[in-house]
Amino acid sequence: MSEDEIQEVASVDPTAEAETAEASSVEPTDATSAGSVEGEAEAKAKPARKPRAAKPKAAAADAAEASATADTAAAEKPKRTRAAKPKAVAAPKAEAAEAVAEEASAPQADAAPKAAAPKAAAPKAAAPKEKQPAKPSKPAPTRRRGAREPGATVPVVRAQAKYVRSSARKARLVCDNIRGKSVEDARAILAHTPRAVARDWSKLLESAVANAEHNHELVGEDLVIKAVHADEGPTIKRFRPRAMGRASKIRKRTAHLTILLTPKN
């Protein structure tokens, strides 16, 4: 019964109010009992939670399955095998004996033509050899100058004296007198020249003549002075004390002397 119906009944009959009060007092007990029954049912109906440790086991199982499948796939691949080489068949003893017999007979067959070959070559040896004309021997070199060939180059003999203790100017005064002269004339001029550097020029002239006779097989008396010159060498510097504590320079000059000899035309 709803509350509106109860109020209508209470207004009509006072006895109905007492019944409604009893019913209201009874209803809460029924509601509490029903609530407790529903709570127990819900508790039973809820499933229990699974532990978290179950996930790694499943992952491990999957990994094991994957490795098992990989092993099976590798086992299924066929392995490569090399073909066995055929073994050489040993030759029978009979064939070996025949080969030895053939080798023994071959030298005898080759020796027969070789022995006949010298007989055929005998007529060739008997033929007389043609005499070749003897080559003219070169004449022995002599010290005397002979007629030169038209295309031959004229030899030039050179001699040089370096660091002569004389100035180049003083040496040029003497060398100008012997330029273009023969060896005999130059010797006479240098022997009668009253200068100290003339002795150095005389030594150098004798050295040039010796080079011509020893290296070029020329005669000294047939040579002419083709060129002669004096070049400046390094200057040696010294000092001389002078008055009032001063010093003056002393320059000691040197020269390089050169002579070129050539045969007469």
Plain-language structure description:
The strands form two sheets. A three-stranded antiparallel beta sheet has the order 1-5-2. Strands 3-4 form a two-stranded antiparallel ribbon. 10% of the residues are buried. It is 52% helix and 15% strand. The chain has a domain at 157-263: Ribosomal protein L22/L17 (Ribosomal Protein L22, Chain A, Alpha-Beta Complex), CATH 3.90.470.10. It has helices at residues 3-12, 14-45, 54-76, 93-126, 168-178, 183-191, 197-215, and strands at 157-164, 223-232, 236-241, 247-252, 255-263. With 265 residues, the protein is of the alpha+beta class. The radius of gyration is 71 Å and the shape is flat. A hairpin with a 5-residue loop joins strand 3 (236-241) and strand 4. It has seven helices and five strands, in the order H-H-H-H-E-H-H-H-E-E-E-E.
Feature tags:
265 residues; alpha+beta; Ribosomal Protein L22, Chain A; three-stranded antiparallel β-sheet; two-stranded antiparallel sheet; 5 strands; 15% strand
The first-level CATH class name of the domain at 157-263: Alpha Beta
CATH architecture assignment of the domain at 157-263? Alpha-Beta Complex
Q: What is the spatial order of strands in the main beta sheet? A: 1-5-2
Radius of gyration: 71 Å
State the major sheet.
Answer: 3 strands, antiparallel
CATH topology of the domain at 157-263: Ribosomal Protein L22, Chain A
- Given helix and strand content, the structural type is alpha+beta
General form: flat
End-to-end gap: 174 Å
Helix content: 40-55%
Number of helices: 7
Mean pLDDT: 73
**Poorly predicted parts:** 25-32
Q: State the total count of DSSP E strands.
A: 5
**Oligomeric organization of the protein chains:** single chain
Strand/helix succession: HHHHEHHHEEEE
CATH superfamily of the domain at 157-263: Ribosomal protein L22/L17
In terms of DSSP E residues, the strand content is: 5-15%
